[in-house]
């Protein structure tokens, strides 16, 4: 569904991504893990058209999207839920959700998706009229994911959904991500919390200073001694 080939991204003269290649197949949850500054967010931002790569190719559903504008990429069903949530504080929960559907024209479809989002996140339904900025951190994360779902994504890029959340809320968000995937949305998940990412992802790519240093099935990677000591906190 998504193929990234030999991607190179620079900020000025400093590279952030060096020759990264990976793929996400339809129906999968694939995770990119790595320490701070490894280049995970940069990879997602490049896929969604927010940063122009120096070289390399990105294909989505067998179509090259490397040079397309972000809104065109969104209209193809590739939706990015950014790090730090980026919800609009003085819009209500409902207004924030409706923003996610801005590129859609199917009014009844939008109403159906809103109902689905409320079913998946009952807390958002309860707080429909509350201002986004007054939600708790976990609720804001739910709102950010809900807004992403409003676009009816085929592929959802999730950047650090566990950031700033308690272990219990992280579990809750990850279980929702798994359900979203089981209902048919393919997911590319960026996480620093490798332990949680391995619980739900099928495959992982490990990034270190802008390069892929390892990849494979999560079941296998999580037993690798290097992964265990570097990313799963084991000695
Ligand atoms: P984190 O987990 O801390 O969010 P990350 O793996 O997502 O890290 P990126 O945010 O992609 O990492 O950053 C990769 C590298 O690019 C880092 O060295 C970072 O300092 C640098 N970088 C990111 N954004 C910019 C920018 N706008 N200008 C210059 N350098 C940047």
Automatic annotation (TrEMBL):
The ABC transporter domain, residue ranges: 2-234
Superkingdom of the source species: Bacteria
Pfam family, one: ABC_tran
UniProt-recorded Gene Ontology molecular function terms: ATP binding; ATP hydrolysis activity; branched-chain amino acid transmembrane transporter activity
Keyword Nucleotide-binding tagged: yes
A single GO BP: L-amino acid transport
Keywords tagged on the record: Amino-acid transport, ATP-binding, Nucleotide-binding, Transport
Signal peptide: none
Transport among keywords: yes
UniProt record similarity statement: Belongs to the ABC transporter superfamily.
Protein name (record): ABC transporter related
Organism: Desulforudis audaxviator (strain MP104C)
Native organism taxonomy: Bacteria, Bacillati, Bacillota, Clostridia, Thermoanaerobacterales
